[in-house]
Design goal:
There is one protein chain. The model has no long low-confidence stretch (mean pLDDT about 95). The protein has one domain. It is globular. By secondary structure, it is mainly α.
């Protein structure tokens, strides 16, 4: 299998895992991160900056936010595979970096960070989600998608 296909496939599985765990916990745990709200705000802010109208309908906004999140996280997680070296350390570093970035970047970008920083539990889960997605990506690279 071509390396870029293997890496992108593994990144996609990691991105799906991240979103799945987020949705399950968001709907069932008090103080769970609401990464979807942060993403929706980012989508509408980007559209406004580009001169387009923000998306008003909640279901449409949710769908486009989820799609853009999966695309972005697939691209990000696919880097873990690279040339196949140091997959586990890269996954840990990239997962933690993405999670910490999700906590630290909203405010400088002019976004409301409350959905991911509301409580210490919210913060820990946010970082954990991104780490989980990265580890799933690494597991895919190491086991299922062996070169």
């Amino acid at each position: 299998m071509l390396r870029w296909i293997r890496n992108t496939t593994a990144g996609f599985v990691g991105a799906i895992a991240l979103n799945a765990i987020h949705e399950i916990i968001r709907k069932n745990v008090k103080n769970a991160p609401q990464i979807n709200l942060l993403g929706a705000e980012a989508v509408n802010k980007t559209l406004s900056m580009a001169g387009a109208h923000p998306i008003q309908h909640p279901n449409d906004l949710y769908k486009i936010t989820l799609e853009t999140d999966i695309i972005a996280n697939t691209a990000y997680y696919s880097i873990i595979g690279g040339k196949g070296k140091y997959i586990w350390p890269k996954a840990i570093i990239m997962g933690l970096s993405a999670g910490i970035g999700a906590l630290k970047m909203p405010e400088p970008l002019g976004l409301d960070d409350t959905p991911v920083t509301h409580t210490n539990t919210t913060k820990a889960l946010t970082v954990g989600y991104y780490l989980f997605g990265a580890l799933v990506t690494a597991a895919m690279l190491k086991t299922i998608l062996k070169p």
